[in-house]
Write a structure and sequence with these properties.
Length: 88
């Protein structure tokens, strides 16, 4: 699973060719024992995260929306994408 970013104890991934189960552009988020799928628009599609971490991820996605969609478009074509740094 290619890593998109890592911050605040969370690891954010995007999968190549990942258009089957969740139709919206999304990321996979891992935080301790939590796993979630979060759409780039901030919708929680599957799984769960603590409220604070979900807010952090959705804020990060909103801030990096253009980069996240660019990475998504590359990933669904099976192309490697650039990592997105955490918010500074």
């Amino acid at each position: 699973m290619p890593e998109l970013s890592r911050f605040g104890g969370m690891v954010i991934y995007m999968l190549f060719y990942d258009v089957g189960q969740h139709n919206k552009p999304h990321v996979h988020v891992y935080y301790g024992e939590y796993e979630a799928v979060v759409a780039i628009d901030g919708e929680l599609l599957a799984g769960a995260l603590p409220r604070k971490q979900l807010k952090i991820v959705t804020g990060w996605l909103a801030y990096n929306e253009e980069k996240a969609y660019k990475a998504w478009n590359q990933a669904v074509r099976g192309e490697h994408f650039d990592k997105i740094p955490p918010m500074e």
